[in-house]
Amino acid sequence: MGAAGSADRTKIVGTNACAECHKQEAEALKGTHHFKTFREMPRDAATNKIAKAMGVRRVKAESVCLNCHFTVQEKGGSAEPISGISCESCHGAGQDWIKVHSGYSGKTAATETKSEAAARWKQAEAKGMIRPGAVYALAKNCYSCHVVPHEELVNKGGHLPGSAFDLVAWSQGEVRHNTWHSKGKDNVAASAARRRMLYLVGLGVELETALRAIGKASARKIYAFDMAARADRARKQLAAAAKAVPGVPEIGKLVELGHAGALKLNNEGALLAAADGIAKVLEAISAKYDGSTMSGLDTFIPTPDKYKGQARAAAAVK
Ligand code: HEC
Ligand code: HEC
Ligand code: HEC
Ligand code: HEC
User: I need a surface site. Which of 38, 141, 236, 314 has the fewest CB within 10 A?
Assistant: First the structure.
């Protein structure tokens, strides 16, 4: 398995570089498990057990743990963990796009034309930026860590086989930092339409990730069982969603693909083909819909009392 998240280690600039302009977002990050894991995970009693079972001597040295718990910067051939999970773990490594995305095409926010702005964003995305609007790409990063698609780490290391993750509940609590477009006045909750997109695409990515994991699994042990249970649960939730929103035929297609390969070992070809198909449909959904026609999903979507942790209150920027 490669690094989880989409961050290319050689192109990591680090949170401080983002915080120069994004002060509020950086403050919000400090209140999260993502930030604190850098200091706390290596001291956790559970870490010792997992590390020992995995033959890892120091979790901050080159180890499997780096991929999900830390942000790693590679310079001159040596790799160094510089923080916990950070801006670039979710928005993509910044080196190639940081100037582009913020430069207003060499003009100002007021003088840049609409088509210049569109071209700027297109260029930033081509250089690896993951914007909030790219729901599929965003979700892929979350699940690449939170499903814990790593057989040895789970079966041999005793690591949790993933989180009981839901993209709405897990993005709208402590992780939320929608303070930029309100100029720091408010930490704006995702709109109802956007929550539907997060819910639907999140479920699809969970199914995709679990199918890939089963395809690669080699032992009839906890990892394979857990991934199969995860895939089956996601399929059932998607089937309910398909019924509730008949106007979005793509959801039915996801369910169909979810059943295209049996959830068993030694079935890699069929499972990976199904996962690839799901990825295509999800990209299409992410590009075509904005959630406004999907109110049928509202009864399934976690309510604020289910959100993971507390969103930081915004403090107006001075
Ligand atoms: C020099 C100032 C500056 C720096 C440094 C900076 N940004 Fe930004 N960022 C901006 C500006 C300005 C915008 C809004 C541009 C617009 O609305 O057209 C923005 C917008 C964004 C958005 C929202 C995009 C959207 O679709 O609305 C994200 C996400 C983001 N930045 C992430 C980052 C990350 C991650 C870093 C560090 C790797 C970073 N920024 C560094 C100035 C900066
Ligand atoms: C594929 C991604 C992934 C890898 C690799 C990984 N972890 Fe984790 N780990 C997670 C996630 C996600 C959680 C959070 C689970 C939850 O709370 O739902 C977690 C939670 C933990 C926890 C409990 C929470 C805490 O931080 O106190 C410990 C301990 C831990 N991991 C240790 C390790 C160690 C040690 C390694 C390397 C041997 C490792 N992890 C590798 C994804 C990963
Ligand atoms: C755990 C993943 C994650 C991390 C870490 C993260 N972001 Fe985000 N970011 C997101 C998601 C998801 C959204 C969209 C949330 C929503 O729709 O409610 C977002 C939205 C944004 C926005 C748009 C805010 C607005 O007002 O609409 C900006 C700007 C941004 N992030 C910048 C940053 C910066 C800078 C950092 C680091 C200090 C950072 N993000 C860390 C996932 C992350
Ligand atoms: C690079 C890997 C990685 C990515 C990407 C990632 N996470 Fe995490 N996340 C973790 C790990 C590891 C932990 C556990 C940290 C700990 O407790 O030590 C965690 C913890 C959390 C927690 C706290 C859970 C609790 O115990 O209360 C939330 C909420 C969360 N993540 C949401 C998200 C969301 C939403 C996204 C995507 C927008 C995301 N994460 C992306 C690795 C990741």
Answer: 236
